[in-house]
Amino acid sequence: MNPKLHPSIQPDSNGLFGEFGGKIDHPALQKALQEIEDGFHAMIKDEEFLREFKLLRETYIGRPSPIYHARNLSKNGANIYFKREDLNHTGAHKINHCIGEVLLAKRLGKKKVIAETGAGQHGVALATAAALLGMPCDIHMGEVDIAKEAPNVSRMKVLGANVVPVSFGAKTLKEAVDSAFADYLKDPEGTMYAIGSVVGPAPFPEIVAFFQSIVGHEAREQFQSAYGHLPNEVVACVGGGSNAIGIFNAFLDDKEVKLTGVEPAGDGLDKPGRHAASLTLGKKGEIHGFRCYYLQNEDGSPATVYSIASGLDYPGVGPQHCYLYDKGRVNYDTADDKECLDAFITLSRQEGIIPALESSHAAAYAIRQATNKDKNYHILVNLSGRGDKDIDFVMSKLGL
Any idea where the domains of the chain sit in the sequence? Predict the structure, then answer.
C-alpha cells in the first residue's frame, strides 16, 4: 500500500484547491518552491524511492498503526475506535511526512532542513528523520511552547537538532512559522523548508497530504476487514489539518461516512483571541503565502489565537480543508479547553491511553457524540499523538 491523494484534494497547476491555496508571489521563493514541487512529483513516481519509503514505514515508523476498539468508552452509547497514530515511532502522525520531506531534501542536494513546531511533535519527528538520514536540522519554536512542551524540546536537542527560540509576538506557533520562513529566505537554494502541516504555499499542502494519506488508506482497509463495514463517522482534530486530511482522504467517496474535523474553541468561541476556530469563525484571506479561512483583525491581519494544545494554536487552516468546508463534504465542529482536559483524563483512566492535547479535542467530540447515538453507530477517531509531552502541563493545570 502506497500513499495516494484523492483527486478532489490535489491542486491545479496554480497550486489551488478551488479558490484556496496558491503559489507564493515572491521571486526568490518561486524558483525554490518550483524545484521542490518538481522534485516531489518525480520522487513519488520513482520505484526505488517507493520501495525505500515503504521499508522505512514498516521497519522504522512501525506502520500500519492499529485500530483499537475503545470498549470502556463505548459502554453507554456509540462504539468508539481509535486509529493509533500515537504508537508510531516519535509518538505522532508527524513522522509520516517528515521522513518523506528529508528524503526529498537529500534528493535535491540540500544541506539543511528548516521547520517550525508548536507542540514539538513535528520538531521531534523532523529531528528524528534528519538524524536517521544525516541532515542538519533547525527547528523554530515559540518561547511559550518551549516552556510548555519541555520534554519535546529535550528530545529535539538529544536528536541533534538546533532549537531556535522565537521571542516576538505571542511566541507561539504562528510566530514560529514567521521565524522559520524568514530563515529560509536567507538561503532557499541550500536549505529546504520542511513544513509541519497542510498549510503554506504550493507545494507544501500537497506534499504533506500525500504522505499523510497512508493513515486513511490503512484505516479504511482495516475497519472494513475487521468489522465488515465502514464507520459511520470519522473524526480528527484540526489546527493546520495534516492528521485530519490524512484520514479523511480515503473516505471522501464514501458519502455515507460523515467526516468531522474538530477545531479548538479554547476558552470559548465568544472570546476573541482565546480560541483558534479558523473555519468556524474565520474569513477568507491570505496568510503565510496561501489563501484560506483564518481568524482576522479588522484590518485583515492575523488575529491573536489561543488553544490549550500548542499544535492547534494557529490562526489559519489548510486549503484542502477550506475547499472541503465550502463543498460541504466535511463537517467542522469545536471542543473547548474543558472538554479537551476532560477527554484527556477520561481516555487515560478508562482506556489506559494518554492522548496528546491536540488529539483530545477529537476524543472529546467523539465522547460527546457517542452519548447521542446507539450501538449501531461507529465512530473512528484519528488519535494523532500521545500525551507524554503534555503530562506535566496537565498535572499543573488540574492540580494533580
Answer: 16-58+94-205, 62-91+213-398
Q: Is the pLDDT of residue 3 over 90?
A: yes
Q: Which CATH number fits domain 16-58+94-205: 3.40.50.980, 3.40.5.10, 1.10.10.10, 3.40.50.1100?
A: 3.40.50.1100
| Domain 62-91+213-398 in the same topology as domain 16-58+94-205 | yes
From 23, 65, 85, 94, the catalytic residue: 94
Identity of the amino acid at 77: G
Is 52 in the active site? no
Among residues 101, 116, 175, 358, the one annotated as catalytic is 116
Looking at residue 26, what is its pLDDT?
85
CATH class of the domain comprising 62-91+213-398: alpha beta
The active-site residue out of 65, 179, 242, 384 is 384
Please give the Cα distance from 188 to 53 (Å, whole number).
25
Task: Please name every residue paired with 379 in a beta bridge, in sequence order, or none if there are none.
Answer: 80, 233
Average model confidence (pLDDT) for the chain?
96
Residues 217-241 have pLDDT tens digits of 999 999 999 999 999 999 999 999 9
Predicted pLDDT of residue 385: 97
pLDDT category at 173 given cuts 50, 70, 90 is confident
Listed in sequence order, the DSSP H helices in the chain are 27-43, 47-56, 95-107, 121-133, 143-148, 150-158, 173-186, 204-227, 242-248, 278-281, 319-327, 337-351, 357-370, 391-398
C-alpha cell at position 73: 468508552
- In the predicted structure, residue 1 carries a pLDDT above the cut 90: no
Asked about 94 being catalytic, the answer comes back as: yes
Cell readout for 37 is 514541487
Q: Is 77:370 a contact under the CB 8 Å cutoff?
A: yes
The H-or-E segment that residue 291 falls in is strand 290-294
Residue-wise pLDDT tens digits, 254-305: 999 999 999 999 999 999 999 999 999 999 999 999 999 999 999 999 999 9
CB-based contact 207:97 (threshold 8 Å): yes
Residue 130 has pLDDT above 90, yes or no: yes
